[in-house]
Structure formats: C-alpha cells, structure tokens
Design goal:
The complex is a heterodimer of chains A (about 325) and B (about 170). With about 325 residues, chain A is of the alpha/beta class. Helices cover about 50% and strands about 10% of the residues of chain A. Chain A has an eight-stranded mixed beta sheet, sandwiched between helices. In chain A, helix 1 crosses helix 14. Chain B has two domains: about 70 residues, Helix Hairpins, CATH 1.10.287; about 80 residues, lambda repressor-like DNA-binding domains (434 Repressor (Amino-terminal Domain), Orthogonal Bundle), CATH 1.10.260.40. Chain B is built from eight helices and no strands. The chains are: A alpha/beta (about 325), B mainly alpha (about 170). The interface between A and B is medium-sized, with 17 and 15 residues.
Chain lengths: ~325, ~170
C-alpha cells in the first residue's frame, strides 16, 4: 500500500478519524461516539464505523440495541458496499456502520480487500468518519490508522495501557516508515544503516534517521519530512489525579526523543461518573449530560483536532 | 570535546547554547526523571539496556555542558532561599550551589575572597565551573572546602565531590 497523503484541501472527501490505542476498555468507543455526537449536533454529517470486530458495541453507545445490517453482511456478500450497510441512528446527521456479529476470523480473508474498503470509506457521503479500531495492533488496525487524517491514541494512566499504546505507536510508526522507504526506493540505504547499527544496537527511530543523514542527506530529509507528518494525538482518558494530567505531556516529550515526532498538546479527558450512568440507561453521554466534564473535554479535544474555522462551522 | 559535542549535548537536553546553568540543571533533572526506571511515562518504551544508555548520554551531555561554561554569572538573579526548594544539587552543579548559598547570605565574591584569603579569580572560576581555569586538584579541594564553609553550605563534602567529578585532572586519590 502506498502512503495516503490526503491533504486538507480535498473539500468533498470526509475527514477520517481513527480511534485506537491497543488496549481494550480504555474508552475508545465512548470517545469515538462522543466526538461524532458532538459534531453531528453542530450539523456535520458523521458516520461511526465500528471496526472492533469480535467486540463490536458501538451501536449501544448511540442507543441502538440491535443493528439490522452489519459489516458481517459485507463479508457474507449479502451486501455489496459500505453504503448498503449504513444505518441511520436516532440522532440527526449521525449514521452507523456496525461491526456486530462479525468475527475476527471472518474478518481476515475479507480484510485483504481493505484497500478497497478504505477507498469506499473516502467516498461515503459524510463530513467525518470515525473508525473505532478496537484493541490490538494487527496490520488491519494499523492500516486503518495510517489511512486516517486524524489518528487518536486513547489510553488510561495505567502501566498496561501505556505499554499497549507504545506498542501500537511503534508498530504503526514502523509500518509507515517501511512504506515511505519503499516509496523512496531507499531500501538498500536503510539496510546498510541498519547493518552497522545493529552491532551497536538501533536505539530509536530518531537515531536511525540521524545515521541516514550521514549517508544520504537528501533521502534522509525526504524520509524525515514524510515521517514528521505522522503525528497521532495522545488522548489520556479517565484523568483523576494531578500526575495523570502530566502523563500525556511527558509521553509527548519521550516520543519526540524516541521517534523524533511532535504529537503536539495531548488531550485530557476527565474521569466522569456520568459516562457510566448514561451507558447504563443506553443513552449517549453527550445527549444526557451535555454540560458535564466528559462532554466539555470532548469539545476541547475537537477544538484541538480541527482547524478553528472548521470547529466553529455549523454552530451559527 | 569539540563544538559539535557541545551542540549535541544542548540538543539532547532540548536546549540551545544560550541557556543558563539553572536551565541546564532543570532540563537535565526533568529528563533524568522522565527516563528513570520508575517513570510511568516511558514505561515499556525502552528496554533496560537502552534506558541505561539513555541515562548515561544525558549524564554525559550534562557534564559536557557544565564543563564548557565560561563564567556566565547571572549576577542579578534574586537570592534563593532554601525553603523554596530550588537550591541546585551540590554534586551535579556545585558551582551554582556555592553561588546560591553566597547570594543567600548577601555576600559578594569580594567578601568571600577577604574571608577565605582565596583570590577572587579562583572563586569566580569555581562558581562558574570554568574547568579550563580551575586550580590543580590539590588546591581546588581546599579552596572549594573553604568557600563552601564560608557560605554555610550544609553538605561541604558533596560540593567537593561534585568539583572532583567535573574537574578534568585525574584525582590523586583514585
Ligand atoms: N472519562 C470516563 N469517565 C468514566 N468512565 C469512563 C470514561 N471513559 C470510559 N469510561 C468507562 O470505561 C468503560 C470502557 O469504555 P469503552 O469506550 O467501552 O472502552 P473501549 O472501547 O476502549 O474498549 C465504559 O464502560 C465507561 O463506563
Ligand atoms: Mg470499544
């Protein structure tokens, strides 16, 4: 697959968001649905795409107990395109592509057509598509993540979530790096750098790039420029204590040091009991508690991710 | 040590060469903490060996910078009191530690020179950690000890150790 470099300028294509992070239970689905609800309420056409196959539950977050058509219909060839399985939700401007009843094992053969699927996504009639990636760092997850303009890495301030986040980040960074290297036909150069580096140990991608700089400044520069665009947003969820607040900023510094990428200001989402209360009544938390801390932090995340003009669009 | 080493050292601490010693110390301390074994923010990012190497490279960068410093004394900084907790570490930045204590007592370098009978030239180079111009270790040890006592440093030995560590000459004891 070649690197998808979709620029801001493409007005009619939907903006694709991928919400990942490697760990289950950190809040990917509630955040994905919150973002979509919030933008839909502003009049933007939003689609939620549940790619958490085997653990699909995104429909529940928008109050739809039993989705009639799901991605499994696509795999069973009972439906031909994503358009056919697009479901309206109880909320204006918000549609859902459900992953319910699909299994991971049925996903894999069909997922071979993921390039086709990604292409289909980009022509759906919407302003925003939110892909809930589910847990894990499989190639399928990574390719969706890399195809998105807005990649979000959701984690909680716990060692296991951090571990999975770094694992996901490394896996997606290297997958992207590999495709850029292939694109630049720089395989030999990188192999040579790696061959000598391996003896001393390649400590980090940033050091690899520094080494390449010595060998071929031009290629290194192009590589660097392409990789500098890899800037997923860290979203620290369930923030409670002051250490939790600092965690994201520290991880951003560590990633700048390790990968040489600048992920910018991390997003914080406070722990908010209303999330569970809303979930239990099977209503979106943003609809039930639009003024609560969770809703407020979702709006702040949106402001971080969207250029000012776009964020205010539809509010008037 | 050459200029490139120095540039790299500043870059490693996320600084440029116009940073003052206090900023160098702060950046160094924060990065050490970030890459410490116990740090949650870098948990699992680096394996044990890489982490050790990272910490070592930070240490080296810090040493390279402190040794390169030529008397850039921030004379007009407000005195630092011990209860603010911002007094610099006597082992890593012994010169700054001495300066802070001197300023806290409201003493000038001239005052210290008169009390210790040590030349102001040496005192200034000691505070600035100006390694090229420090006296030989045998003298340095005594000067630092005297200077530290005069400005009421609590842990005189730590400051002496700090200077022995950054001094270029081999110490006579080991
Ligand atoms: N900010 C938050 N405050 C309180 N609880 C939260 C928050 N975010 C998530 N949760 C809780 O965590 C659980 C898991 O969230 P979910 O979105 O299903 O995670 P994932 O999709 O990553 O597996 C939810 O049941 C929800 O109650
Ligand atoms: Mg989920």
């Amino acid at each position: 697959m070649t690197v998808t470099d979709q620029q801001e300028g493409q007005q009619h294509r939907p903006r694709i968001w991928a919400i990942g992070g490697g760990k289950g239970g950190v809040g990917k689905s509630v955040i994905a649905s919150g973002l979509a609800m919030s933008l839909a309420a502003r009049g933007e056409r939003c689609i939620l795409f549940d790619a958490d196959l085997g653990g699909a539950n995104l429909h529940t977050f928008v109050g739809m107990p039993n989705p009639q058509r799901t991605i499994s219909d696509l795999f069973r060839r009972a439906a031909a395109t994503l358009d056919d399985i697009l479901l309206p939700t109880p909320f204006p401007n918000l549609s859902l592509i459900s992953g319910a009843r699909a299994q991971l094992d049925m996903a894999n053969p069909a997922w071979l057509q993921k390039v086709k699927l990604i292409r289909q996504l980009t022509i759906l009639p919407a302003d925003h598509i939110f892909i809930d990636l589910g847990a894990g760092s499989s190639f399928n997850m990574l390719d969706f993540f890399l195809a998105a303009q807005n990649g979000l890495l959701v984690l909680m301030p716990t060692p296991t979530a951090i571990e999975n986040t770094y694992h996901f980040l490394k896996a997606s960074y290297y997958r992207r790096l590999r495709s850029v290297i292939r694109h630049l036909e720089a395989e030999d150069l990188v192999d040579a750098a790696l061959a000598t580096k391996v003896q001393n140990g390649v400590r980090s991608p940033r050091e690899l790039l520094l080494d390449l700089q010595q060998r071929d400044p031009q290629v290194a520069q192009r590589l660097q420029r392409a990789m500098a665009r890899f800037t997923p947003k860290l979203v620290v969820n369930q923030v409670q204590r002051s250490e939790d607040r600092e965690l994201g900023a520290k991880m951003v510094i560590a990633c700048r040091d390790f990968f040489g990428i600048d992920m910018g200001e991390p997003a914080l989402i406070r722990n908010d009991e209303r999330v569970l209360v809303a979930l239990k009544s099977r209503r979106p938390v943003l609809e039930m508690f639009p003024g609560g801390p969770f809703a407020e932090d979702i709006r702040r995340l949106l402001a971080l991710m969207l250029p000012a003009k776009e964020a205010s669009h539809g509010q008037r | 040590m050459d200029r490139d080493d120095l540039q790299r050292s500043y870059a490693l601490l996320g600084l440029t060469s116009d940073a003052n010693l206090r900023e160098v110390e702060t950046a160094y301390r924060q990065l050490r903490e970030l890459f410490d074994e116990a740090s949650l923010a870098t948990y699992s990012l680096l394996d044990y060996a890489d982490r050790q190497e990272k910490l070592e490279s930070l240490q080296i960068a810090f040493d390279v910078i402190t040794q390169s410093r030529i008397c850039p004394l921030p004379q007009d900084e407000p005195p630092v009191t011990s209860d603010t907790g911002t007094v610099c570490d006597p082992r890593t930045t012994p010169g700054l530690h001495l300066q802070q204590h001197r300023e806290r007592l409201g003493l000038s370098l001239q005052d210290v020179a008169e009390r210790t009978k040590i030349g102001i030239y040496h005192l200034r180079n000691i505070e600035a950690q100006n390694c090229d111009k420090l006296p030989a270790n045998v003298y340095l040890r005594g000067f630092v000890r005297e200077f530290a006592r005069t400005v009421s440093v609590e842990d005189v030995d730590a400051v002496v150790d700090g200077f022995m560590a950054i001094s270029r000459q081999p110490t006579e004891s080991n």
